[in-house]
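PROTEIN SPECIFICATION:
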Amino acid sequence: MAFIRSMFPRVLFESSTVFKAGYPDDYVIGTISEKYKESHRVWIARTEEGFYALLAVCTHLGCIPRWQEAENKFRCPCHGSGFYSSGINFEGPAPRALERLEIYLSDDGGLMVDKSKKLLYEKGEWEESILQV
């Protein structure tokens, strides 16, 4: 039996950590897009300065916060953590800001997000997280 199992190794196939998130013109300045929240757990924000991508996972216990456009904040439904649209935590038990992800332009001008490259506020890495277009 062990021989047969060795012929079929247990391999988990995960989707790529990099995905295309449309084109810059698909986004309105001053908005948070939830288009990739369900499929990739990512929000894309466009500001006057440029674009940034936030990982849609609360830094408290890993729940999925909700974007509350009317209040211009993210709110975690599990324990009430609140985050500004920038991703900085301001209320509740979340110990730190949301994680930003690397975002860059592909050769065809599309937005690319790399979920394997996390940028942390507390390490001063957010300066490099803004994609200026």
Q: What stands out?
A: The first strand starts at residue 18 and ends at 20. The chain has a mean pLDDT of 92. Strands lie at 18-20, 31-33, 42-46, 51-55, 66-68, 73-75, 82-84, 89-91, 100-105, 111-119. The two ends are 58 Å apart (CA to CA).
